[in-house]
Amino acid sequence: MKTQFLPVVEEFYSIQGEGFHTGKAAYFLRVGGCDVGCRWCDEKRSWNAGDWDMVDVEKVVERAAQYPAKAVVVTGGEPLMWNLDYLCHLFGDNGVQRFLETSGSHPLSGTWEWICLSPKKNAPPLPDLLNAANELKIIIETEKDFIWAEEQVAAVSPDCKLWLQPEWGRSKQMIPAIVDYILAHPQWGVSLQSHKYMGVP
């Protein structure tokens, strides 16, 4: 199915602030619509897709391809609420690498160089997304989230990168616990929202 239009919350060129590709330049495409509803989400404005204009994806790709990084991060909201096959096809035709950020709660569409899976308890990831993930990023709000993290590891591929990231509003409380956990479980690494420290979008 060809999805020609998507509800676009914002587009911008910036630095990736989280996970394996931290510090790299990319074009960011934030797609509207999310039915996961994390209470600590810092992009709640994206939840209602109807709040945003439907934008021609050909125009999006044209804008993204103008930037020197030739890489796009598709995020949300939950971007997999939409069929992203056509969007990815256009990016590929324009030489733009494709990176997805998803909770994994909807079927996978599109072709991707990299998938960052950040699963949530209230909308668990589908098996196909766990299998496809290049990196697993678990948000740590309380110490119970370490249990959730280990449950997800059992389903991802052996070469999947593993990250624990403190929920921004509880960073000071949770960073010491994350450090202690990683010292005891060194297969994990720590991911920080470095863009917020740097003051970039």
What this model shows, in words?
- The chain has 201 residues and is α/β, with parallel strands linked by helices.
- The protein has one domain (5-198): Alpha-Beta Barrel (TIM Barrel).
- It is built from six helices and nine strands, in the order βββαβαββαβαβαβα.
- It has helices at residues 57-64, 85-93, 127-132, 145-153, 171-184, 194-198, and strands spanning 5-15, 25-31, 54-56, 71-75, 97-102, 114-117, 135-140, 161-166, 189-190.
- The protein has a nine-stranded mixed β-sheet with strand order 3-1-2-4-5-6-7-8-9.
- Strand 7 (135-140), helix 4 (145-153) and strand 8 (161-166) form a beta-alpha-beta unit.
- The mean pLDDT is 95.
- Give the total of beta strands: 9
State the CATH architecture: Alpha-Beta Barrel
What's the structural domain tally? 1
CATH top level label: Alpha Beta
* SS element count, helices: 6
Q: Globular, elongated, flat, extended or rod-shaped: what is the shape?
A: globular
Query: Largest sheet, if any?
Result: 9 strands, mixed
Rg value: 16 Å
Distance between the termini: 32 Å
The fourth-level CATH homologous superfamily is Aldolase class I
Strand order of the largest sheet: 3-1-2-4-5-6-7-8-9
The percentage of residues in β strands lies in 15-25%
**Average pLDDT:** 95
Low-confidence stretches: none
Helix content: 25-40%
> What is CATH's topology name?
TIM Barrel
Give the topology string: H per helix, E per strand: EEEHEHEEHEHEHEH
What structural category arises from helix and sheet content?
alpha/beta
